[in-house]
Amino acid sequence: MGTYNITLLPGDGIGPEIVSGAVTVLNAVGKKFNHTFSYTEADIGGCAIDKHGTSLPQETIDKCLASDSVLLGAVGGPKWDGVPADIRPESGLLGIRKALGLYSNLRPSILKPQLKAASPLKDDKLESGLDIMVVRELTGGIYFGKKQRAADNSWASDEEKYSREEILRIGKIAFETAMIRQKRVVSVDKANVLESSRLWRETMNELAKDYPEVALSHMYVDNAAMQIAINPAQFDVIVTSNIFGDILSDLSSAVAGSIGMLPSASLGAGKRGMYEPIHGSAPDIAGMDIANPIATIVSAAMMLELSFGLLEEARAVNCAVDAVLDAGYRTADIMSEGMKKIGTKEMADRIAANI
Length: 355
Ligand code: NAD
Fold this sequence. Notes:
Number of strands: 14
Radius of gyration: 20 Å
Distance between the termini: 17 Å
Strand content: 15-25%
Number of helices: 12
Structural class: alpha/beta
Bound molecules: nicotinamide-adenine-dinucleotide
Largest sheet: 10 strands, mixed
């Protein structure tokens, strides 16, 4: 029996609907396993711009720092497309990752057998299954590098810069993760062109000496994108930079069926993490009760496991998701013939009822 304080950052678009679904499931876990989850809500993204004039108010950072963990929905939407770059909704997201020291992003892509029909790949590509863990560096690289633009708009530039220390710490997470999986790491870079990638590759090779049981190989990012599409079963752990990880994890999620299914965990040196679905705020379907809440619900399961050490409880959430899918219930994004279409709230309620 434990007490856990969670900061909820619902954000924009479908964020509030999917976070509310995850809370329903967490409350069912609390009831079943006798834990108390208490929640504090804070603003981030577009809704924070509207209320506070900034996408990341100091109050939000303080609440996150005072809590055991953070669950985020998503930020952004067309309403804020025109705001200055430094207060854009996405800058709030980058800012909170930095403020909480969350330098690694774990993004598992698993194709559930029940959702094979939802994958765009043909059956023969999926015979060996799909279970990829993308370990993405989260607080460095081009997203945080120096940004410049000429006063007359004739040029603009962004800097991709990595220190050896930054590469070592994300590499360690990847190797440790591989040790409890299939013991294979593919490091993805663009070392044929980029100096930062050459340092990345050298540092990964150096680190590999500490993990003799793990097989390390390297792949250029363009080839990696192609390989994920043509032979995804070859991958166990992929470790890569911030920008390449952003792109490749979306690709591996699409291969796994729907972006609405996949969770992520952002971790730093301590136990506190930030957990969020990998998709965005889906403004096109916001407020319609049709978004898939499963990515957020299984993100909460990752929080139970990685931040709170509640392995049985995390397993209960994943099993409840499987049970609802086995019973044929689907949200619109994963709907296929013969299945029963349900909305966001009903999906969360059914998962909670199966805990
Ligand atoms: P998106 O992920 O929001 O949506 C892409 C497509 O997937 C849309 O058709 C959407 O309806 C669908 N989709 C996404 N999540 C879904 C779910 N749970 N259930 C069913 N369908 C789902 O990406 P986008 O349209 O490129 O971006 C929309 C906004 O989100 C932008 O402002 C973008 O900057 C922001 N964004 C935020 C994050 C984040 O908060 N972490 C990540 C990516 C994009």
